[in-house]
């Protein structure tokens, strides 16, 4: 697994061992960030990012490589947390990151609101909706924030109140769902 583009292009990332974590494939990450970089819904330069169910932290770290100002990683399990810390150290982005050991479906109060969120819950877990509701309730999302949810291609998913679906893109075994958050 590597950073696909930007300042840290080509740098290797550590992935957590075991079967409990499913890192977003490089080709899916490439497609996702290509869409984001050509979207008028989010400005990557200067973005504040939350990476929920962070795993290796690849999505948040890719955003930093492409110009985001800050990334916060929500992860509960020990092995993924170790990988996130190792990847942050490898890329030397400690000053631009915060790692929060927490259940992404029950997040703590946010240190600041974010303009971009990535959610990559385990497929077919039903955790995407509780996570979205928790992030909204705990101040993690700025009004108008773009949220990208990765679910299984065959997984039923409907966003909760306050989130408007704006686009869906199938990518192999995954489906990327793009949502806009409205705080009112």
TrEMBL record:
Signal peptide segment: none
Pfam families: Cons_hypoth95
Coiled-coil positions: none
Gene Ontology MF annotations: methyltransferase activity
Keywords: Methyltransferase, Transferase
Gene3D superfamilies per the UniProt record, alphabetical: Vaccinia Virus protein VP39
A biological-process GO annotation: rRNA methylation
DNA damage in keyword set: no
Name of the molecule in the record: 16S rRNA (Guanine(966)-N(2))-methyltransferase
Organism for this UniProt entry: Paramagnetospirillum magnetotacticum MS-1
